Recover the amino acids of this structure.
């Protein structure tokens, strides 16, 4: 299975989008929007900002086929 390493994050506050490279060795718990400067936090039940606000699940979730709030 080929893992996609880039995801387009969409800010829930202002709708700004940005393509970001996802870390493969850790999960991103927060991300600051470069447009409105609001910090996107991980909602309960989701493992990282990419699974919550991205158009592609994080690498670990891609491999398992689902996103969980468990530590990677």
């Amino acid at each position: 299975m080929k893992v996609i390493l880039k995801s387009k994050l969409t800010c829930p506050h202002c709708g700004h989008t940005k393509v970001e490279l996802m870390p493969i060795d850790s999960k991103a718990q927060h991300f600051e929007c470069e447009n409105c400067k609001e910090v996107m936090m991980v909602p309960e039940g989701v493992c990282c900002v990419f699974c919550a606000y991205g158009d592609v699940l994080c690498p670990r979730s891609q491999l398992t086929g689902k996103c969980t709030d468990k530590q990677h």
Remarks:
- The CA atoms of residues 31 and 40 lie 5 Å apart.
